[in-house]
Specification:
heterodimer, A: eight-stranded antiparallel beta barrel, B: alpha+beta
Chain lengths: 214, 170
């Protein structure tokens, strides 16, 4: 761990100071990728990679997402789900003498997701009996709107096949904070697992993506 | 280097497996559902009402000429047994979440969900007054079929809500 932190610190220093040694060049400054594991949640995520420096190997990654789903997922019987999302990350390759987007890297960023979910589910609803207000649990079709914010820090490794195609794996940690339009505070119905649509808390994150530069 | 890569791939595989396993069947909550009340409403709802028919009864307590019969999670029926040949259902003491009671020196002790209350009564149970309340002394009652975990109970709990009863699903 100490070794990794040292490598990260040194790499950041070298990249920001414009290390004098000649760099291995890379022609493309724009890439497009696809992140297959998002289909598990009914989503499609595309990554747009943009080089942000001519002298250091740093990239900005914009990851728009769309979600559409019906059926069973994460313990929910979803009648209809639609959603949008956007991740923005700053990616720094740890090899200082190359502009090629390959090898070990570190990245951090922020994320936002919005979901509209209609589900035949149980929910609490108030009713009055002899002038006294109670809250019972009813079952029926209910639409919930979820707003999820968060941040990530990843370490990963990217391979280049030729100079165009990339294959990228990463893992790291993140935090999520979710709100919904029903109960005050945090949602719990969609907070069953760390992959659930309304998860709040910390998580271990991992994934892979494929794409190409042009 | 190769070892690090292998570790990275192994971690990703474990996490991916976790995601797939979590795509499980919908959660089954059993045959009962919880009923909640706002604390303020629960405290102010303790009062004497007109007699009601006995439906889902619990504990029975004898106090002088009176028989007190618990109506589970709702309150206490007051039955005048001065004529054992013809007992009279004379009043109902509304106490949400009540499943137990005891009485001494005209003071009725009962559970009001998670609170313990003491009520001073008149000799004929014409009126009652809460003289003491010890809050949060009892745990919340579990679901009769024990399908509900505390986590699930909290999923539906309104703000400041207290679980006062379990209702059998129709």
């Amino acid at each position: 761990m100490k070794k990794l932190l040292l490598i990260l610190s040194l790499s950041a220093l070298f990249t920001t100071c414009g290390f004098a040694q000649e760099k291995e060049i890379f022609g493309s400054r724009l890439g497009i990728g696809f992140v297959p594991q998002y289909t598990i949640s009914g989503g499609m995520r595309f990554d747009i990679d943009r080089s942000i420096s001519k002298t250091s190997n740093q990239w900005l990654i914009f990851s728009p997402q769309v979600y559409m789903l019906t059926g069973s997922r994460y313990g929910h019987e979803i009648e209809e789900l639609s959603g949008l999302g956007l991740d923005v990350k700053h990616k720094i390759y740890l090899k200082p003498n190359s502009m090629k987007p390959q090898g070990f890297y570190a990245q951090y960023g922020i994320m936002f997701q919005y979901f509209s979910i209609t589900e035949n589910r149980e929910y609490s609803e108030s009713y009055t009996e002899n002038g006294v207000e109670y809250y019972g649990v009813e079952e029926g079709s209910l639409n919930t709107k979820l707003y999820k914010f968060g941040g990530n820090f990843h370490l990963g490794y990217q391979w280049l096949v030729g100079d165009k195609v990339y294959f990228d794996v990463y893992t790291g940690a993140g935090i999520r904070i979710s709100h919904n339009n029903h109960n005050e505070g945090f949602d719990t119905w969609y907070n069953n697992y760390w992959v659930d649509y309304g998860y709040s808390g910390t998580l271990l994150d991992a994934g892979f993506r494929v794409g190409f530069y042009f | 280097m190769k070892k690090t890569l292998n570790s990275l791939l192994f971690t990703i595989m474990c996490l991916a497996t976790g995601i797939l396993l979590s795509s499980s069947e919908p959660i089954y909550y059993g045959n009962y559902s919880p009923i909640y009340m706002d604390r303020t409403a629960m405290e102010s709802a303790v009062k004497m009402e007109a007699a009601q028919p006995l439906r889902t009864t619990g504990k029975i307590y004898i106090y002088g000429q009176y028989i007190l019969v618990n109506e589970k999670f709702k309150g206490i029926h007051v039955i005048d047994n001065s004529n054992p040949a013809a007992p009279q259902n004379i009043a109902f003491l509304h106490i949400d979440g009540c499943i137990d009671m005891a009485m001494k020196n005209n003071v009725l002790f009962a559970d009001n969900a998670i609170d313990l209350i003491a009520l001073k009564t008149t000799d004929n149970f014409a009126s009652v007054q809460v003289t003491e309340r010890i809050r949060n002394i009892f745990p919340e009652v579990e679901s009769p079929d024990r399908y509900w975990s505390p986590y699930n109970v909290n999923q539906f709990r309104p703000k400041n809500g207290i679980l006062v009863a379990w209702k059998k699903k129709s």
